[in-house]
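Shipment paperwork, digital attachment
Item: protein structure file
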Amino acid sequence: MDKIIHGRVWKFPENVDTDQIIPAEYLVTGDAKELGRHAFERARPEFVGRVQEGDIIVAGRNFGCGSSREHAPRALIGAGISCVVASSFARIFYRNSINIGLPVVECDVEANEGDELEINFGEGKVKNISSDKEYKFPPLPEFILNLINEGGLVSYVKKRLKDE
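Attachment content:
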């Protein structure tokens, strides 16, 4: 992952729960691509057909509330989402996202569906290119960036053990 990403916005409200992200009947697989084919299937049926690799979700408070399964952030990765920016996250969703390599940024960002964002993880900045507004968040620590770059915690640890 680059320290700077660009993507098109998908706008979501507050309290998006993990069952909205990936319906329970698809929890029989851990395959990200398969899960991604069903992301927001009921909440936003048009999502899967229109989402593009590198798109960014912008949401309100408490994104990812609900179950503690890693399937929800895995489905977002499988759908092509490069980052989720939200006012706040459910704690377990936040941790699961980092652990499997999905960047998450806690920041209040004004954006409309389809706006173009630039996120600089190293500097802690989100720029809405469409409105020319900029927002700040605490920069992601180098260790977290390394975890994300490696594809998550398991891949990170496997690589480190292999290198020893």
